[in-house]
Design goal:
Structural class: mainly alpha
Length: 165
């Protein structure tokens, strides 16, 4: 996708991989952070694989594959409910998610906390509860915005020209 990020090639190439997958590429081959810099170790391979799992998942969502968003939606509900263990379980990398959470909130009591360490209990935006009626209204708006055939908009060949609709 871009070549200005040595040491982060797993991210730049995963962005391109997501676009390629959106357009129908059947197989993605991961890249590690050490691409063109050195031989990867086990952690580099792990990071590359996770980046490409994210890319493949994003491509499935972009292609409107049935069920592709189910895990995302379930994780979003777990976030909203502050079900930390469910969030870890649904993560692509549960160990990393748990590790990052536990760096700042290590005690077991914080697995039931209704806040994270980013905003704390006084400033958590998730404390603003949304009703089921609010969610239903949002679902209606989102459904109305979706293309009934699941078609993607035309790719813009020349950014100076408006995309065909």
């Amino acid at each position: 996708m871009t070549d200005i990020a040595p040491g982060y090639d797993h991210i730049t190439s995963a962005i391109g991989a997501a676009l390629a997958g959106w357009h129908g590429t059947a197989m993605l081959c991961y890249v590690t952070p050490k691409e063109h810099l050195g031989l990867p170790n086990a952690e580099d391979v792990r990071e590359g694989l996770i980046a490409y799992k994210i890319a493949a998942h994003a491509a499935d969502i972009a292609r409107h594959r049935p069920g592709a968003r189910d895990r995302d939606d379930e994780l979003s509900r777990a976030r909203y409910a502050f079900d930390w263990n469910k969030q870890f379980e649904l993560s692509l990398d549960p160990e990393r998610a748990r590790e990052y959470h536990d760096e700042t909130l290590p005690a077991d009591i914080y697995k039931q906390a209704e806040f994270c360490s980013m905003c704390g209990p006084k400033h958590c935006p998730m404390q603003t509860k949304i009703t089921d009626e609010d969610l239903a209204g949002l679902e209606e708006v989102l459904a109305a915005q979706q293309d009934p055939q699941g078609e993607r908009p035309a790719i813009q060949k020349n950014p100076a020209e408006p995309a065909a609709v």
